[in-house]
Amino acid sequence: MHPDRDFNLRHLPPNEADLAKDLELDVLMQAMADGDQFLYAVARCGIHSCLPSPAEIVYRQHILADCIARPGVVRDLYQVGVAAVAGEKKLFGWLFVHNSPDSILRRAREAMELFVGALRRLKDIADAHAASFRSEGFTRFFTMLATELDDDYFAAMQAHLSELAFRQGMLISAKPGNGSKGVGHVLRRQPEQGWRARITGKSRSGYSFVVPPQDENGLRALADLESLGLNDAANALAQSVDHIRSFFQMLCAELGFYIGGLNLRERMAAAGAPTCFPVPASPVPAGTAQALLRARGLYDPCLVLTLGTRAVGNDLDADGRELIMITGANQGGKSTFLRGLGLAQLMMQAGMFVAAEEFTASTCAGLYTHYKREEDATMQRGKLEEELARMSDIADQITAGSLLLCNESFASTNEREGSEIARQVIRALTEAGIRIALVTHLYDLAERCHAENAGTALFLRAERRPDGQRTFRLLEGEPLPTSYGQDLYQQVFGTAYETSRA
Description:
Layout: H1 16-22, H2 25-33, H3 37-46, H4 54-69, H5 71-92, H6 101-129, H7 136-148, H8 151-163, E1 171-176, E2 182-188, H9 195-200, H10 216-270, E3 279-281, E4 293-298, H11 301-307, E5 314-317, E6 323-328, H12 334-348, E7 358-362, E8 367-371, H13 383-397, E9 403-407, H14 415-431, E10 435-439, H15 443-452, E11 457-464, E12 470-476, H16 485-493, H17 497-501
Parallel strand pairs: 3-7, 6-10, 6-11, 8-9, 9-10
Antiparallel strand pairs: 1-2, 4-5, 4-7, 11-12
Helix pairs in contact: 2-3, 2-10, 2-11, 3-10, 4-5, 4-10, 5-6, 5-10, 6-8, 6-10, 14-15
């Protein structure tokens, strides 16, 4: 996931709940998870990566491109990791109840044998398919497997695990301490047996004694001696198991994100919806008005996933524009376009493909949304107060270089008051170097912004044909004083609005 660090499965932005609600991220993540809760959790963190560097984005894009080209191999790698982690939990979890060095060592040895088998399977896949992968991430991964998991490594691991089975018994040394009690117990390697001992089965001569099975105190004392000798070895092997378990857990998490990408792409392809790898550009200093944002055939992937069919795409050329204001007919696709734009920015900075034929954008420092909400069910405050409180929270978090999406903000009050509030918020944020994309029906706001920001703002209008039909396309155009609500009235009641008034 990163060229220089592990994937952080606990990182989520403070506004994650608002982004999920406003951009309908659950639809996207459910498609990526395909019913797997672990993949859902991975997708949830991965989609909020917000990679700031184009180099990091391209690094992840190349890995995903490799996954798309060879999905079977990547799924096999993922299943090896899943089987290793699940197998250890399922087969040996009960041994956690016993905390003696002997039980810890036994569990660690059995877990290590399971993990070594999984590492062998990874190595076999790498040997068979490494040459067909091109991305830096997979090349580094396969090189690591080839270098560290060679034949000598597996031979040494097998020898150690075989020795830790103690088929010839344990050899423990100790020194005499106070009261003739043994101290400094150390587990020793069994000496090599000569040919005579291997043939006769007899070990070297020496003093020995046998504890009778009926001697409970003697057996207990012997078990205590074994624990003293096994303690260091058990701890060392358990730490090794923890290390390899962490490797497989991280392998599942990182590959899981790309598996989610494959699942999503398959769903999009089944609906006939195009996707592309975007071209990320570096962020620009505030006030330079050179940030890039353009697209061809941009659409909302959540709409496609919900309907199961291709959606209408829109073109956008907002390079250097600090404000994108979207007006026009009701139910003309304005909110859908805004959601598609937000998802494209989010998916691009997660290193994914986007729902468009082409997409180029500067990276942003953060993505924020301010959408209209339903009335407060507790009736503790009005809608305008709630909107202002959420905008205040955003102002406390947002920084220069961020992107803010607003959908019908401050429409809960009268047009004059709502327009003035929105205009002042827009001016303050754009002066602070924050780009805003805004859907509004407030004509007073749109008209004044058009007059004041003609050179730095882009004004889009939802297309409506003369017969009232919506094409769901957004065209560049100045705001109009109507949203054609009468079309909806006629659609619902079957009569013209003017006639019904008469």
